[in-house]
Amino acid sequence: MSDPTGSAPSYTVVSPVRDEARFLATTARSLVAQTLRPRHWVIVDDGSTDATPELAERLAAAHDWITVVHRPRRVTRERGAPIVRAFNDGLSHVERPGDVVVKLDGDLHLPAHYFEWVLAVFAREPRAGIVGGTVYVPEGDRWVPDAVGRHTVHGAIKSYRRQCLEEIGGLRESMGWDGIDEYAARSRGWRVLPLSELGVLHYKPRGSKQHWRRARWEEGRGARYMGYRWHGIVLRVAYRSVREHPPVLAGLTLGTGYLWATVRRLPQCDDRRAVDLLREEQAARLWRLLRGGGDVQPDRLEGGGPAFWTLDSPLPGERAAP
Q1: Residue 51: which residues within 8 A CB-CB, separation 6 or more?
Q2: SS3 breakdown of the chain: % helix, strand, coil, rounded to 5?
Q3: What is the CATH number of the domain that holds 195?
Q4: Residue 152: per-residue pLDDT
């Protein structure tokens, strides 16, 4: 379907995928069912060893707005840099990506109105730079919010205003890319807007394809890349020690990865404005905690966000009031 008023921003979706044969069809059904479909959907097969490439090609044959890009097979399974390289490769195959560029995982279920609501935020808020819903992951036989900060948009579902993405220099090919991008955007006056009313099901939690030890180690390296203060990493270690499995060891491994990267003097993010903002906010967060205050609150939209805006929407077949 298309926007009957022509007012919604156009968007392109890029999905780096690897060994997603079990879930990619669900993501595809979600995109086909969107009330506002993308201009392009580029599926980047990043060296799958299962039936993902064949499934992606069948999808492209059935829909002229779907393109498949094949990349060489990788020996190791990593997060961070390989994902961003695949994303950038896919985006380079789009001549006219439109107003909004979306990095979308291939193991999701989205409601049919997902992008209609996301695009409504971009249309209504000119400084909206990064927008996305709330990700839920399976825990036994129920779905629970993924353990990311309420002020951040989950890396599986990031929608970027193209002007914002260009202004921050694109995504960094490093672990921590989905954190430093938001500081880079906000340091330049863009808003990062997670939508609490827009739920997305993520069938495979973050790092589930890796052993927990490697996942937490890489997270520690990513924190070093982003420029974390010492007290910032202590708080993160404590949080992961409680929230991640196995308890305590997960947090300690994260901290060890950070220390190893620090001792080795591995490269840090070259965006000074982003790193300065991160460090400034970490200092402010520590001060609030010491004073008994709460954590950082998410940026809030006037009018409560699209779940409230739609209360005044016209019925099907009616015209909006002038």
Answers
A1: 21
A2: 40, 20, 40
A3: 3.90.550.10
A4: 93
